[in-house]
Amino acid sequence: MNLLVGATGFVGGHLVEYLFEQGEISKGLFRKGAHLKILDTNGVQGIEGDVLDHHSLHDGMEGVDTVYNLASPTPGEDIEFEKANTEGVLNLIEVAKEEKVKNLIHLSTVDVFGFTNSGRAPSEPNPSNPYQKAKAEAERLLLEQSKRSPSPRIVIIRAAKAVGSRDPSFVTPVLRMAKEGKVTLPDSGVMSFVHPKDVAQAMLKAATGAAPSGTMYTVKSFDATPLALAKELVSATGLPAEVKKQGLFAGGSLAEYTSKQLRAARVIDAQANWSQLGYAPVFDVKLTSSEVAKWYKKDPWAIDA
User: Distance between CA atoms of 46 and 62, rounded to whole angstroms?
Assistant: First the structure.
């Protein structure tokens, strides 16, 4: 039995689908007001709560072998994101120990390396804003726990920029611009992307594998420029739009945080320990764009929601 924390989010929803496809039985912890369709259609028992509420965590972890933590609120959401990313992680560790959970698989992000304009792959975390610092602190707390106790077994997955259907930060803004006939993006060079189903694959392999507690993996699906990815998305959806580099003084059409990610042009090298995990990315630029196009053609209204 699994518990997915953050099950109704972008990556969390794809993990829900992936685990259901793999025959896994799961529960999902959701915050009040979340849309539950993704849980209902994939046979997931929903439990209202959050990582700052011990009672709901106990309810969620009862009878659970593996906890997947995808809770990652960002600045601007109606929750204290710093507390959720730090105190919330401590709560997860504490309750997981009390409920004798075997595995705690935590989704982190390459954003812990901060924003950099260097084309070289980063080597050490260097968070530069409160969100990145909170994510880096969550990693530190988890790694400290893994040194103190072998239970629960903790594995951290650092994911590159996630893109795919239902993606609110890159795909949706690009398709909104495409509907208006022109897509403009920052000139950020090559960066690394990951499809959330590839993240889900990595998380399941981390849960079912034998990696020692405290192991960390960095995962990506492909490298591309945002402009190249946007062109593939526009082509796959059939929207008649021009895709061009954003001018120096043009107003941004993406959320500020995502725009900074794109300008960072970060390239994440494939990690040597991928072979230990057994991770093999399935999605490339074309397959990701095709998957997005199927979603968009089925629910074109979704990008206006």
Answer: 13
Radius of gyration of the chain (CA): 19
CA 155 distance to own-chain centroid: 15
CA 235 to chain centre: 25
Which residue in this structure is represented by tokens 């204290």?
80
Going by C-beta distance under 8 Å and a sequence separation of 6 or more, which residues neighbour residue 76?
none
The domain defined by 2-225+240-304 folds into Rossmann fold (3.40.50)
CA angle 75/204/289 to nearest 5° reads 65
Model pLDDT for residues 183-228, shown as the tens digit of each residue:
999 878 889 999 999 999 999 999 999 999 999 999 999 999 999 9
Q: Where are the domains of the chain?
A: 2-225+240-304
**pTM (2 decimals)?**
0.93
Tens digits of per-residue pLDDT, 236-263? 999 999 999 886 545 557 888 888 888 8
8 A C-beta contact, residue 3 and residue 24:
no
Between 219 and 81, residue with greater pLDDT: 219
